[in-house]
Prior knowledge:
The chain is of the alpha+beta class. Helices cover 42% and strands 31% of the residues. A five-stranded antiparallel sheet has the order 3-2-1-4-5.
Amino acid sequence: xxxxxxxxxxxxxxxxxxxxxxxxxxxxxxxxxxxxxxxxxxxxxxxxxxxxxxxxxxxxxxxxxxxxxxxxxxxxxxxxxxxxxxxxxxxxxxxxxxxxxxxxxxxxxxxxxxxxxxxxxxxxxxxxxxxxxxxxxxxxxx
Length: 142
């Protein structure tokens, strides 16, 4: 049983690491190729996400709607995250695709997923190393 547990704690950080690298490369690509501008939060909209598959219950959250100008035209972007410090009228840094300015993202949002997954990777790796050390010193059954 412990071997299965140790294998899982080895597999999870490995998967998290690969996904973190993928997301980090994607974010870095956007930082190099996308153009930056300032947008303004114009309102908030409700978003709905199911709590779990098959259930009728939903979780309601808020997403900022951000207006920004790119190449002389105004666009709107529904932000990919919400924070209590966000207010209507607040300026937010936006990254948009040069050839298609409608493809945009909140600049701070580029770092969120890789950072969260990196923390999970470190956490799972730490637990895995701790379990290996405890087993090596005979503090855990084999």
